[in-house]
Structure formats: C-alpha cells, structure tokens
Amino acid sequence: MRFRLMVWVRVSVVVWVTWSCGWGRWAVVLVSPGRHTMAGMSTSSRRRLSDAPFLAAATGGVPSRRPVWFMRQAGRSLPEYRELRAGVGMLESCFDPELVCEITLQPIRRHGVDAAILFSDIVVPLKAAGIDLDIVAGVGPVVAQPVRTVADVRALPRLRAEEVGAVADGVRLLVKELGDTPLIGFAGAPFTLASYLVEGGPSRHHERTKAMMLGDPETWHALLGALTDIAIEFLRAQLAAGVDAIQLFDSWAGALSLAQYREYVLPHSERVFAELADAGVPRIHFGVGTGELLGAMGEAGADVVGVDWRVPLTEAVRRVGPGKVLQGNLDPATFFAGSEVVEREVRRIAHEADEALALGARGHIFNLGHGVLPDTDPGVITATVELIHSLPMPL
C-alpha cells in the first residue's frame, strides 16, 4: 500500500480516501476543510532527467536518439481516451487529477513518445479564476459574458494557485508514474486567451479582438497584462508540482501581421517567459500559421520555437536566428496519406532538421505542425514514432 501525505498550514484536518492514478492503489489523503489542493513541490525536488532525449535536445545537448512527441497526442485519436471520457465533460476531466493523470499517460504507453504533455485546456485557468465559460462539443470554448470594455477588464478576477490545485495534483500523480519520461506543462498565450474572451468563443477573423487592439490600445494592454498574470500563475503552479518543461500556445497569433504582433502581443508573451526563467526548465513557444512571426516569437525568450508545416526547418532557422531549438513540423494530415508518404515526409523533415543544425539551430524535437487530428489511426502514430527513433543521428 502506498500513501500520499499532504501537510497543511491549518491544524484541523479531515481524512478522505481516493483512487490514485494507478487505478487500483488506495491513497490516504489529509485535507483541510474548504481546500482541495496539495502542498507544493519545491523546484529543487524536480526529477533529474537530463539524459532524457527530449530534455537533452531542448537544452542544446546531444540526445541518445531523435526525440518525438505530438501535440494532442492524448485525445480523441485514442480509443482508450474516448472510452474514459464517455459521459464526462472536457472541463470536468481537466479538474479531475486521476483522469488528468490517466489520459496524459495513455499515449506514453501506446506510442512510446519521448515526452508527456499535461492533459488540460488553455481556458482551464480562466475557468478556475471564476470566468463563466464552458467548452461546447463541436464549437470550443464559449464565454458567457465577453470582455469588451475597460470596465470588463477591470472586473476580471485574478488566478490564485489554489484554484488550480486539482491540476497541480494531477501533475504530482504524473511525476510519480512517468518514470524517466519528461512532463510538459502548458498555458495559453495572452493573445489567444484574449481572443476567446473578447470574441466570446472561437473566431475566424478575430474582428472584435483586433478592433479593441487597434482602436483602444490602452484597454487592450490592460487586458493582456491581466491575462499574462493568469498564464504565469498557472504555469508556476505546474512548475511547483514538478513539470519538466513548459509550452506557451499562441493558437491564434497567425491572424496578426508582424507589426501588430510586435506592438500588441510580443511584450506580454515576453513577460511570461522572463518571469519563469528562474525555473530552470526548457520553455517552448508555439503558434499556428506564424511563419512570418517566427523571428519575433524567437525574441520572446523561449528556448524552443515550434514551427508548423508551412515553413521548412531550414528556413525557420534563418527566421528565428541561431541558438534556438526548433520543434516540428510534420503536417498532421500526412498521417492519412499512407505509410509510404509518412515515411517519405518523416525522412525529409529529419534531413531538414540536420541541415538546420548545421545552419545554427541548437537542436531539434520532432513534432507535428499542429495537433493530432481526431480521426488519425493510432497505429500510424506508433509506427511513426518507431521510424523516427530508428533514424540515425546527425554526425
């Protein structure tokens, strides 16, 4: 029997019994009335995994093999995920530590990827802070009261670490279960969070977002400042619980021009990375359709810059500049094209990665240019991981 003991500042405690992520081991947990989070893990107790291929590449070292993981590797492409999530809402899943742990582990068991990424959603810290929103199937995040005025911005709540205690609990369970596999934590970037809040949900053109950004820059920067604070607090909670790397997702930044990005977005993303630099873990920056923004995104302060499939890695290194690790950049649709096409594209990207290293890139992590698509055959993903691991390392 394995026990987890959590100690609180308050003296009064009650005892509950819950399942751990091991799905069959009991854990006795001491909790204080009115609270559900565990005591934080100090960053000094983070696992030492410098030899893990993902972390070696992310820090500019020489990995023992080509590291690979996939965005949305834990998700609807896996039958075990669909079975586990049946009848359970997305946000409910994200605040259940045992579900978070189990779902995060599923692609590690099935595919043998070199890193786990925490199962969560970029709007989780907004929900935790008290913003009225839901994730609607087939639509995405929907905000009950969009943020469109200076009064709305002033009314935004701040995020406290205890409000994402369930997420941190999931991280702690994972740290115990993952062995020598690194765990990536993540948050949504301030611009992408702002787009959801201002638009009220997903948007093709981001017209209300851009209207505030261009027409009322003072309110805009106040909004992004508040969202930067939320992103930092969310990532700090994950780091304190033991994640080994962090990724900032700017899913909608590709809607911006380079000038817009530099003036209205870059300073805030830069602050996220700057305030987390002392954590001593690799920091990854990723956006979709951001080929023209790669140079500016590289300036934000991340150690690793994600590249989507629209820009070859050999061009990406020129835009980002030397000294950064590149991550990417297989088109997710390639998985539907047959094994010969997948192998050809994987080998092409590996070759481009080797050339990018010669041009000054500090390393390469194989990934997709976006997330795994829901109808992807998981067997194809597993075979792709095996292929990538079999490829020789550059001389």
TrEMBL record:
Q: What is its EC number?
A: 4.1.1.37
Primary gene name = hemE
Question: Which residues does substrate bind?
Answer: R72, Q73, A74, G75, R76, D121, Y196, S251, H370
Q: Which reaction does it catalyse?
A: uroporphyrinogen III + 4 H(+) = coproporphyrinogen III + 4 CO2
**Domain named Uroporphyrinogen decarboxylase (URO-D): which ranges?**
67-76, 184-200
Where's it mainly located?
Answer: cytoplasm
The molecule here is called Uroporphyrinogen decarboxylase
In which pathway is this protein known to take part?
A: Porphyrin-containing compound metabolism; protoporphyrin-IX biosynthesis; coproporphyrinogen-III from 5-aminolevulinate: step 4/4
Domain of life of the native organism: Bacteria
Which is one GO molecular function term here? uroporphyrinogen decarboxylase activity
According to UniProt, residues marked as the site described as Transition state stabilizer are D121
Q: Which Pfam families match?
A: URO-D (PF01208)
Q: Which keywords does UniProt give here? A: Cytoplasm, Decarboxylase, Lyase, Porphyrin biosynthesis
Please name the PROSITE patterns in this protein's record: UROD_1, UROD_2
Q: Which organism is it from?
A: Nocardia pseudobrasiliensis
The UniProt function text for this chain reads: Catalyzes the decarboxylation of four acetate groups of uroporphyrinogen-III to yield coproporphyrinogen-III.
Any one biological process term the GO annotation gives: protoporphyrinogen IX biosynthetic process
Q: State the GO CC annotations.
A: cytosol
